[in-house]
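Exercise 3.2. Students should predict the tertiary structure of the chain below and write it as structure tokens, then compare their answer with the key that follows.

Predict this chain's 3D structure.
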Amino acid sequence: MSTEEFVHIPSRASEGLDEAPSITVAVQAGISPRLYNSDLAPTTREGRHWSAYSIFSLWANDVHSLGNYAFAIGLFALGLSGGAILGALAFGALFLFLLLTFSGFMGEKTGVPFPVMSRIAFGVHGAQIPGLLRGIVAIAWFGVQTFLASQVLQVVILAVAPGAASLQEGAFLGLSALGWITFVALWIVQVIIVSYGMEMIRKYEAFAGPIILGTFVILAVWVLVQSGFQINWAPHGTAEGGELWLKMLGAASLWVSIYGTFVLNFCDFTRGAKSRKAIVKGNFWGIPINMLFFGLIVVILAGGTFEIDGTVITSPADVVAAIPNTLLLVLASLALIALTVAVNLMANFVAPTYAFTNLLPRHLNFRKAALLSAVIGLVITPWNLYNSPVVINVFLGGLGALLGPLFGIIMVDYWLIKKQRINVPELYSTSPVAEYAYSRGFNPRAVIALIVAGGISLLLTFMPVFESVREFSWFFAAGLAAVVYGVIADRRGPFHDVPAGDIAVTPTH
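Answer key:
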């Protein structure tokens, strides 16, 4: 290894995207093209454009996802009243605000995406473990969410052109002709957006956020008017006493576990945050305030429709389907599609894109990795996955059970072991004496903690005997991993706090 290695970072000009010259960066000895390219590089301060509103708009979209509404409405069936549901969401929002803020601070300080952040705890090569675990789960859900959005698009098409119903006859690989048309159309839209990088995702989220919030306000007002401003706060009756509090805390824990994937790779977004203040402000309005607003919408939609016809809806899509005016039905459906795309981009597309870029940085940039992720999300025929309880519950449930332990290990290592002292340039070094080399690029102590806590998390997820405490499994698994790693971690150091310096890159897309 020479004292200075030159890493060529392909510019967007090399892809025929703009007139910027190729960027050749001279970096310190040990920096390896196996670990570094312009998309994995730390972001420069002047290249960060994510404001408090940008972060708020992430939550304005993600919190109001159709899956979240289905979850929250389902809490009525557990015996929770509207007030208890609001209380459960408030507890969950408090935990999430703290977890996501601390997770977000990591991205703001270092400017690196999640797979690179994972190198701090798992080693420069061991980081492939958390990166790929997060990416595989995300790819599967990307396909499933695209399929669900395509079903809403089919409703829109049939409302405008009833003759298209003939395209629903027959099937190829489990999907009708109309199903293929709508799925591929939404697939292409998402690929185009992501191909322009994180900046385009930021702009789309900022555009979709107000539309989504406005749509749900209009739906809530429409339900209130139809119900004569009467709301049933407990359509299924209510639990009482200790049982009520246990169910509320269980619901709050489940609400946090829904975001167990996103708390891991929030740094993918906050690496572009202007400041810690922007993260705190965006999270405050986007999590506790927005989640309580979400809860109020849930109570109005579910309790109001129960007053109207005596049934409890399972999703806002049920309310949309009941709109008698075709134009309003189409507009509301398009808003739900825009929402699903926004959620899919942030929660299920960014993570695998960075994971694949981290796997082969010499061959894949953000755009190529995004296309690879999308192709995999298509060829796995996600509609068949969605219709298979075994795949959804066992495969994705099993992988999801490992995300809590990953969070516990990474957070303890960053905040308690390293105490925020991060040598950013050595996150890209293959030198055997670099800070994150550990043992041939793997930190065996982090892997041991993951195996121990992950194994117990899988037992909690799948063993019937633990069903009564399953709601708390994410907290238990994350906490256990944190304790195990905290006990066996190497604290000897020294841990150096070194900024990115010359290897930082101003994002061009």
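Discussion points: The first helix runs from residue 52 to 62. Residues 1-29 have pLDDT under 50 and may be disordered.
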